[in-house]
Structures are given as structure tokens and as C-alpha cells.
Design brief:
The chain has a single domain, classed as Glycosyltransferase, CATH 1.50.10. Helix content is 53%, strand content 5%. It has 11 helices and 5 strands, in the order H-E-E-E-H-H-H-H-H-E-E-H-H-H-H-H. A 3-stranded antiparallel β-sheet has the order 1-2-3, covered by helices on one side. Strand 2 and strand 3 form a beta hairpin. The protein is globular. The two termini are 14 Å apart.
Length: 303
């Protein structure tokens, strides 16, 4: 947290080449994950990124692969680099091959966690975002269909094995469905980005309705992520680290532009003011550090 020098914690501002109207670059700037200095991925012999767990074992983690693929895609769009296109291709093809018959990536089981639901709305959304872009770039419908399967599972109720919590027009997309009510903010918004892509590509009216339901819910509940001096990571009282606080600002700015909702921009600007306030920053940093010491959580991935 002090240095931010890990591939999981590169600076993630607004995307460089995304479009509101068409499928193009990704909404958050992941290019530092591909070309960043001071960070390093580890790869298998085919060039697919892998992660190391606390027990030393190496796993393929779908979220890491989706984010690296989206990073490579943007680098390819911006520079035309062949190595970036090849990395984009490798990641998309790996996600396509790893997707199960329900359209999901069972990341919690890959992490060796004994949980009821193996899926995450964040991973479903980001995996779909990568597959949509790859399918559209190649004109290959099978990748688009795989992306739509991922979104269908993401929107399925938690009680049916999906990642959505819905009631009376309210819709939350849970990054960690086994902890219903945690409502991790960044994971929810990344899932929304995947749904936004699905609406652009598929034009399905029912998905447009679901998109507005979850935007309405987030808009109503965003005040619950504001501590008065910093943003919360989730609804369980965990303060965001400085990296995640900055990410929240970027996510809300993009979401405001995509949705046309000024309330998201207003909150992002208020949280930027929190970040510039040295007293608030110091208070948040110390509080987060104490929270980490008191409740380190399930620290599984170490690299």
C-alpha cells in the first residue's frame, strides 16, 4: 500500500480511447499493466499471465487475464503494436476456452476457496468486455456469443447460482456473491461496464432495462460509500486504499459520461477533493492500515 509497486496496483485512470456510442477502447486505462515500469507479470510458456498464491502454487486467474487482455487491446489500438495484438488474442482465446457451460469463470475455486458460488460479477463483466472486443475485431460470432453467456450468468440471481441481487427494481451486481451485501464498489461498476458493452452489441431491450435498474440502484446507494472524508471499498465499513479511492474517482467519471448522470460526476469530484486534502488523506491511510492489521482478510494472491 505504501509503494503501489505491484501489477495489481498500477495507476488506473479513465480509458484513453473508449467510445460512448460504439465498442472501442476499455473504459479504464489498464495500459500500465502491459507497458508499465516497475511492475512485472509472470507468464506461462505461451505468454498468458498467471498468478502465484500464498502457498507458492501458480494459477490462471481469469480477472488478471481479462485485465491484461484489455490492456493489450488498448495498447494495440493506440500504437498498432503486433505484440499487443498477440497478447490480446492469447488472453481472449484463453478466456473462451476456460469458460464453463454456464458461461462463467470459476475464479473462487481457482483460488482454492471453499465457497458456494464460484463466480464474480466483476470477472463476468470484464471477461465479457474482452470477448466482445475480440469477437467484434475478428468478426467471429462465437466470441460474441460467449460474452453474452457471461452476461446472462452475471444477471442470474444469486440464489440460482449467478451474481445478481434483485428485488423490486433494485439490482446489485456482487463481486463476491458469497458475501451478499458486501457490494464491493469497483467490482459492481466493472460489472456495469460489461453490461453496457452487452447493450451496445446486442441491443437487447431486457438488458437495457437491467442496465438502468442497476444504475438507479447505484445512484441511490452511492451516498453509503462516502465516509465524509474518504470512500468506502464496500458496504462492510472497509475504507478504500489510496489506489482504490483513486480508481473510484475514475470509475465514476466514466460512468457519468456513459450514463449521462451528473450525480456520479458530482461524487467523483467530491472524492477528488478528499484526496487533495492532506488531513483527510493521512486519516484515511492510517485508518486503512489499522483495518488491514485488524482484519487482513483472505490474502490469497501474492503475485
Amino acid at each position: 500500500m505504501l509503494t503501489g509497486r505491484s501489477i495489481q496496483h498500477v495507476k488506473q485512470g479513465m480509458g484513453k480511447v473508449y467510445s460512448k456510442e460504439a465498442l472501442r477502447g476499455y473504459y479504464i486505462d489498464y495500459t500500465g499493466k502491459f507497458i508499465g515500469k516497475g511492475q512485472s507479470h509472470i507468464f506461462d510458456d505461451k505468454g498468458v499471465p498467471v498468478n502465484q498464491l500464498a502457498d507458492g502454487s501458480i494459477i490462471y486467474f481469469p480477472t488478471t487475464i481479462a485485465q491484461y487482455g484489455l490492456a493489450a487491446y488498448d495498447v494495440w489500438l493506440i500504437t498498432g503494436r503486433e505484440d499487443a495484438y498477440n497478447a490480446f488474442t492469447r488472453c481472449a482465446q484463453w478466456l473462451f476456452a476456460d469458460q464453463d457451460e454456464l458461461g462463467g469463470w470459476q475464479l473462487f475455486r481457482k483460488l482454492k476457496l471453499n465457497v458456494g458460488c464460484p463466480y464474480s460479477a466483476m470477472t463476468q463483466g470484464q471477461g465479457a468486455s474482452l470477448l466482445y472486443r475480440f469477437g467484434v475485431a475478428l468478426g467471429e460470432d462465437k466470441y460474441v456469443q460467449a460474452a453474452e453467456s457471461a452476461i446472462t450468468l452475471m444477471l442470474s440471481p444469486v440464489e440460482n447460482g449467478g451474481t445478481a441481487v434483485a428485488c423490486g427494481g433494485r439490482l446489485v451486481l456482487e463481486e463476491v456473491p458469497t458475501k451478499i451485501g458486501s457490494q464491493v464498489l469497483n467490482g459492481w461498476i466493472f460489472a456495469i461496464f460489461g453490461l453496457y458493452d452487452a447493450v451496445i452489441v446486442s441491443r437487447r431491450q431486457e438488458w437495457y432495462v437491467r442496465l438502468n435498474e442497476t444504475l438507479n440502484t447505484l445512484e441511490d446507494e452511492l451516498v453509503l460509500y462516502d465516509s465524509g472524508y474518504w470512500s468506502f471499498y464496500d458496504r462492510n465499513g472497509h475504507l478504500a486504499s489510496p489506489m482504490y479511492h483513486d480508481l473510484h474517482v475514475s470509475l465514476l467519471k466514466v460512468l457519468s459520461e456513459l450514463s449521462g448522470r451528473e450525480s456520479f460526476l458530482e461524487v467523483s469530484e467530491r472524492w477528488e477533493e478528499y484526496r487533495r486534502n492532506k488531513f483527510f488523506y493521512t486519516r484515511a491511510f492510517l485508518t486503512k492500515a489499522l483495518q488491514k492489521l485488524r482484519d487482513p482478510g483472505d490474502v490469497v494472491i501474492v503475485r
